[in-house]
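Format notes (please read before filing issues)

Several people have asked whether sequences and structure tokens are stored in separate files. They are not. Every record keeps both together, in the order shown below: the sequence lines, then the token lines. Line labels are part of the format and must not be stripped during preprocessing.
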Amino acid sequence: MFTGIIEETGRVVSFAPAADAWKLHLSARKVPVGLAPGDSVAVNGCCLTVTGRDAASLWFDVLEETRRLTGFAQLAPGAAVNLERSLRADGRLDGHFVTGHIDGPGRITVFEPRGKDHYLRVQAPAEFARYLVYKGSVAIDGISLTVAEAEGGTFAVWLIPTTLAVTNLAEKKAGDAVNLEFDILAKYVEKLTALRPR
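Then the structure lines:
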């Protein structure tokens, strides 16, 4: 479980196929501290298991399924990635409940400054549009954000300067893919409502 509050932006060192899985090597400063193989880290919102670490690097195995269903296929050496360690039971929940299980890729359609603010609009997969509600929560590349507009399969968020400064969004542009995770609470409500006798 994660919160969508990014701890740091790491960099891709390499991402290449091997005999048993895709191997992802990241450089980072803060997140590797105290981690051990088997621990979970959200990488652009996707929950991955640490297979190795040192003071400045993390290694992960990535399934072909994960690569196919996320924006990982676009990762190249030097790319910025958002990193968050899993939520501790005694930690604060500053964002929202983020599982690290990506629902699907989105596509940035508009990303521009508007006055002092930045406006980001994303095209979501049509089957998830029902989870987009005004002032609801959504995770974009693992970042907990508030939906400011929801229309059909697109939604928009407004970004504060801090979000641009500490995440990979500063390097994104219209046309880029992002990983999307929709609110888990909405999914449970939908499921429970569908199971209720009529």
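For reference, the curators noted about this record: The first strand starts at residue 8 and ends at 17. The two ends are 33 Å apart (CA to CA).
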